């Protein structure tokens, strides 16, 4: 029996092959003016009894499942005890389980002790997807994300020191024309401090309109130039980088540090080619 899903339901592209369980509906924060994922969805945490029964039924139907993704936004916000019980329930229901992943905010991770993170790792928690968006604190404040850059950096470092994997997401173009240069520089600084194992760059698409009054949408060429500036500022020791989401003007992938120079060259060649739209945003995902 397939788990019961309440739309909208989101998961990272890398979790396409994972069985999904919704621990909650919506996002406990839901104030970011750049994100339309859960707008209009009242946050509701499912009862433990309801979720446990669903896990057991799915375990009977799909006993060989190896990968599970816990939805919706920021599952770590529900606290250690509840996450621990959910992971224990999953381990009992799925004997071949190898990894469990979820979205997480830095402020939620910060409430966990190292011993608790290690205990969750022992129950197959594997990857936490963290939206840094930008390393520029002023810009985070402007777009309504209540996270602190320093806390997100520390949370990612702690997660990885405890043996978990962090997949960090940044948003190209979030700074518009006014803040673009500082957005690229400060984001590279934050990523260098984090040293995430996985890094994804997505292009900001203003589905909710302008996230702040002075915002100006970057052209396709300006977006690629911002990514180049960001990559040139990166000094990563062991990171898989992807910018292959359909929002991006160029599908890119590299392993740092070995692939850094080739990635820079590819971006420079694309900028010099004249094939990127310099006067408009190019084709956005809604138009594909």
UniProtKB/TrEMBL annotation:
Keywords: Iron, Iron-sulfur, Metal-binding, S-adenosyl-L-methionine. Its cofactor is [4Fe-4S] cluster. SMART domains: Elp3 (SM00729). Residues 11-242 form the Radical SAM core domain. It holds the Pfam family Radical_SAM. The lineage of its organism: Bacteria, Pseudomonadati, Lentisphaerota, Lentisphaeria, Victivallales. GO terms for molecular function: catalytic activity; iron-sulfur cluster binding; metal ion binding. It comes from Victivallis lenta. CDD domains: Radical_SAM. Gene3D superfamilies: Aldolase class I. This is Radical SAM protein. The keyword Oxidoreductase does not apply. InterPro entries: Aldolase_TIM (IPR013785), BchE-like (IPR051198), Elp3/MiaA/NifB-like_rSAM (IPR006638), rSAM (IPR007197), rSAM_sf (IPR058240).
